[in-house]
Amino acid sequence: MKKQDKVALTSSERAVNYEVAKFIMQVVADYYDKPVSMITEKSGKQIYVSLRKCVVYFLYKHTSFGPTEMGRILGKTHADVMHMKETIDGYLMWDVRLRKEIQEMQKIILLKKRSVIKGMNFNDYYYYIDANNFKSLRMNESKAIMFVGFTDEEINTIKNLVGLQGEKREHTDTKMFVLEKRNEI
């Protein structure tokens, strides 16, 4: 049993851990273009198991939960969680593709975790645009404008005011975003 299993967490520490765990599950699901529900579904199919292994890897790295609590979150036993951790650690020793994927997800998770732990407003320190659903206006092969959060009416008004021509399209569930650290003033 890990030492952290024996340590009682305060309610605020537990809340932060759950928020980080929820974000980890969202990042892993989005990265592989799968619904979050696949992580906790009771299935032995390879894709379900792979998603859970990645989540367990990040839960160990970014929360103070022990295997028992992780198992509760994932609908698994502590033994399942420990086995998943051992398995993914083994894969990371030789699977270059998996290592690269883990590193990419790690960057996203670290940014969010830091903002949660410090109690800071994420948007004060990072420039973030959720481009999961947006509309675009393609004017030619090398020029286009993305509209996030605009209605068709607002886009048409902008087109008419500026005199833009081009094909407008709607993009949904793209799993894309813009994330940059803000320059400190």
Give me some keywords for this one:
three-stranded antiparallel beta sheet; alpha+beta; Chromosomal Replication Initiator Protein Dnaa, Chain: A; 185 residues; single chain; two-stranded antiparallel ribbon
Structure description:
The protein has about 180 residues and is of the alpha+beta class. The protein folds into two domains: about 5-120, Chromosomal Replication Initiator Protein Dnaa, Chain: A; about 130-180, no CATH class. About 60% of the residues lie in helices and about 15% in strands. It has nine helices and five strands, in the order ααααααααβββαββ. It has helices at about 5, 10-30, 35-40, 45-60, 65-75, 80-95, 95-120, 120-125, 150-160; strands at about 125-130, 135-140, 145, 165-170, 175-180. The chain has a three-stranded antiparallel β-sheet, with no helix packed on it. A hairpin with a 5-residue loop joins strand 2 (about 135-140) and strand 3. Helix 2 (about 10-30) packs antiparallel against helix 7. The longest helix has 23 residues, at about 95-120. It is elongated, with a radius of gyration of 20 Å. The model is unreliable at about 1-5 (pLDDT under 50).
